[in-house]
Design goal:
It contains 2 helices and no strands. The protein has about 50 residues and is mainly α. The mean pLDDT is about 85.
């Protein structure tokens, strides 16, 4: 089966990295007020106007 036995205290993820990601995601989610904030308007027709 390809199973590997590892010590009980081993972690498959770095808790500090996950904690940082959690802080960032909470910060981003706190700025959302409505479901419309999750959607972005298409800007392809305005690229020149916006300097792209």
């Amino acid at each position: 089966l390809g199973l590997k036995v590892v010590p009980k205290d081993y972690q498959s993820i770095d808790k500090e990295r996950v904690a940082a990601l959690l802080v960032m995601s909470k910060s981003w989610m706190n700025r959302i007020e409505t479901v419309d904030d999750l959607f972005h308007d298409e800007i392809s027709g305005q690229k020149e106007k916006l300097g792209y």
